[in-house]
Structures
1.
Amino acid sequence: MRTLICGLLGAAFIGLSASAADTRDENALDRKGQFKAIQEDFSKAQAEGYMALRAAKTPKMPKTADYVARVLTLVEASPKDDLSLEMLSWLALADHGKDARVIDLLIRNHFKNPKIASLCEAYSFGALGANKPLLEKVLSDNPDNRARGLACFALGVMATDAMDAGKTAAEAERLFERCAAEFANVKQGTGRLGDSAKGYLFEIRNLAVGKSAPDVETEDIDGKKVKLSDYKGKVVVLDLWVEWSGPCCGPSRAMIPHVREMVNKLGGKSFALISVCGDGRGILKEFLKQESIPWTL
């Protein structure tokens, strides 16, 4: 009887081991499915964190390091394939480029892959964690024109974010000029790099610290033309808003007494506040029946 029981237990353990081995083999083949499950876990944890934040509770945001470890295990199975590029790109964005292993794997295995354009596009829109050495490798060596163009634009955005009056301003201008000259027709979202580059070049050349502000013109609440040059020589604060986010919304409306105090205190001392509203005059006039605003609207 003991022999029979031992034999049955032994068979059961063998069966369990075989079953576990089969599951591991299946999972090893189904890397894409495992990756999708990890993404879903991360999205769920992130959503729960944001919900807590909205409810004014201490949020428990997902620790990206935990997800990096899980995904890198899948990448190790085949670090050079397109799925690994997809997984590493996701990690780079989710982790904001903090884990050097992720960037290192991208540089070693994928900087020449045309599909890295998707990651470059995210960086071209200002996604956090853009890595300069990776983007420079894509720009210099990737055979795909779109990947190179998006990398060039992303490098320009990085230089703009770090812009000062010297080296980085010149670097940003050079990169956006190259985008406009070489990659103007490259798609970026619903637009083209050429148009986006022109916008950045205008900002660098006209709106950077130390530049004279363009002489914009609008109309006040009574239809009278108002130009920025009318306030030349003064410190001007431009307040841009629409009804749903400006003085008519609760938090902004609560700020009005403080802003009014500031204007009353500094008015006549080379200071001016100009509120530019994106709504119609009717909405604004109704609002002014309830609030006193002693500055230009």
2.
Amino acid sequence: MRKFMHPEQRVFKIKTVFKTLMHNRKVLIPVIIVLSLAWLYACPEKTMIPVVGAHVGDWEPEYFWDCPWCTEYDKHKGIDIIKDFNTPVRSSTPGVILYSGWFGKYGRAIIILSPKLRLHLYGHLNSQNTFISPFVFRGSEIGYVGNTGDSDLPHLHYTIVTILPYFWLFEINNMGFLKIFFLNPDTILDKS
């Protein structure tokens, strides 16, 4: 037979646990960090196509990992959304801007940390917007399609990297061990 607690007993028990945590700060901080990470990771992430006016036909889904210009040791870790020069680029998720500037072969780029602890890289931008706050909302305009870095036509290179590895995506061949961190944007983007 199940023993039911009176609501007042439940409240007392919760208060007791909370007081214990408050008095033991060595336990409180790791508990807060673990709960925050769990909440961020479990938080739903509704994405959108990051280029205004783009649709599924503006990128080649099969070029996520293997592409015609890829070598054995250099994989294409994102998708290239082909659009006209200076087409607005928007944040595909809400998040925090971690970097905005020149980023090697990606030229002008922006990196945004989203709620699921994923880094979203927007590369080859012609220009970036200036930001008053590091926080952006889903759909916020962040820059414009360009041709900077290692690029031969105007497009947005869009990569999603997870901080927490997805071990089930591991592959032995074709540098597949990196796939536990690099996610295919084509499978994550909401295309509706």
3.
Amino acid sequence: MTSEPMASNVEYRLALRIWHPVFPPERISNELGFPIGGGWAVGSTRKSVTGDILSPQTMTYWTSPFEPENPDGLSGIILALCRRLDPQVAFLREIRATGGRIEFFVGWFSGTHSGETLEFSLLQMVGRLEADLALDVYAEPQAVAQHA
């Protein structure tokens, strides 16, 4: 199910991110068995960069990094997260059904050209969990200019 990345100097960082209109971050952590890596609760105070009080948060935002013990390319990391979350599929579907959103956030760090194929069977597993897949690619400016 995994494929090899095109470049060996590629690094991936994956985080699970959830937004919900009602659920507090603690409930999400308790249900999923993941620590809270960051975020806020619906209704909590927001402040501007100058310290001014803004309207309260309209959604809970919860995030937790995911670092498997033996990462095997991007496909392997996503597969490990899918397997870890599969027992909680009912809760993930409840999140979606009640107005929330689930995202596998991937930071893709590459100093050169890179790529990876995500096989349909892996994407089906992500879809079964009702999660979105977000890819943020970070390349060195020199590498981007060479391929432009």
